[in-house]
Amino acid sequence: MWKIIVGFVIFAAIVLYVLTKAGGSVDMSGEKHGGDATHAPAPAAAGESK
Fold first, then answer.
1. Would you say the pTM of this structure is higher than 0.90?
2. Could you list the mean pLDDT of each consecutive 10-residue stretch along the chain, which spans 50 residues?
3. Taking the CA of residue 50 as centre, how many other CA atoms within 13 Å lie in the half-sphere pointing to its CB?
4. How far is it, in rounded angstroms, from Cα 50 to Cα 43?
5. Could you tell me if residue 47 is left (phi over 0), alpha (psi between -120 and 50 degrees) or otherwise beta?
6. What is the distance between the alpha carbons of residues 28 and 15, in angstroms, rounded to a whole number?
């Protein structure tokens, strides 16, 4: 039984280490579908020119 507890503590320590090294870039919100899932920038407005 104590081996399970020690294993869990080690696993939790590894997870916390990885999350702190990743900074704020870890998305823990789960799967995304539709418009939220795209990573492409939004197209410019039709009437806008440089």
1. no
2. 96 90 73 67 61
3. 1
4. 14
5. alpha
6. 13
* DSSP 8-state class, residue 36: G
What does the alpha-carbon distance between residue 14 and residue 11 come to, in Å, rounded to a whole number? Answer: 5
Tell me phi and psi for residue 46, to 5 degrees: -65, -40
- Say how far apart CA 23 and CA 12 lie, in whole Å: 17
14 touches 21 (CB < 8 A): no
Give the Cα separation of 18 and 16 in Å (integer). 5
The position carrying tokens 């789960």 is: 30
